[in-house]
């Protein structure tokens, strides 16, 4: 599907666009949960300790951080459509490589290389998805970013469920990850045909809601062209990124997202192992526990649209940070395994809205959305990606469960910084 550049989106085009973005978010969640849910199997196949698991995860972290650090320039140069396609294909290749390294070669270096490729594809793809999501959110005229990230969570639920099933029947990691990689690459490459953020201009702002969304009753709403400002010649892309890194609100938003992103990332990488090693659960039960976490994160994200429309960003961010602290504490100190699962549910609800609200807030000014989203993404993904491997090193000394207590410090910072999520004037 193609649309002339500089045209507004019709209602039908916005619907198709929104659905395509939903597919892209869902595929990203499926990719992430596919390899995360098989971490116990990867650890056992390669004979890894918590420290070496952290070292392998660090390879993905380095790839992701390198990619997300330049993602703003990539999106401004290629556009969010092409960036999403390229990134998803790289993730598919990385899944295939990680599975091959685990099952066929039984080589930690090959597995780490696969995770590094996943990281390289994921960083820029996620920034492009958030730019695209913020643009379609403006076109729809409601807080739909939580539901788009909810699609990511649905993808993680599906991926975790498939991972738990694969673990239960002892399916080789290679065949599982190879199939997931093909699904991810093909689905996103197809869905991107309906993306529009690169092709439509910025409209003047009109307010109707507590967070100043444009009025959806006035007809088609034009949105951001990734590399242009409204009515102006394109700015130098590097200068756009530099300006975003000097913007105080953008940096504080990044720190706000950092704490909640760390809570989400720590769960993704360590919940299955923490249940297995800290609470004496089986590998399949550990994968199912991660599935429970992402299920409640999904519930929080789909409920988030209603909560944000009613109460606004600041109160909701405070509730989320508080719930994440409570759930994490219950999970760590639970005297019985069933109570740990209750903690996971609260933890998932609390971590649910950090990324989507942060991305929406960073994109409040559509003309600067790509640059500012890339900055907040870099800071947030830095915690999401760097935190879990560092927790692995800490776990060598205090154990996996108690290492998770370090996350509470940044959650407290997120609670304090909640007001910066308010709509920019």
From TrEMBL:
Membrane-spanning intervals of the chain: 53-76, 88-106, 112-131, 151-171, 177-197, 250-272, 284-304, 316-334, 340-363, 375-394, 400-421
Keywords: Membrane, Transmembrane, Transmembrane helix
Membrane-topology annotation of the record: Multi-pass membrane protein
Gene3D superfamilies to which the protein is assigned, alphabetical: MFS general substrate transporter like domains
One Pfam entry name: MFS_1
Organism field: Pseudarthrobacter enclensis
Protein name: Fucose permease
InterPro entries hit by this protein: MFS, MFS_trans_sf, MFS_Transporter
Localization of this protein: Membrane
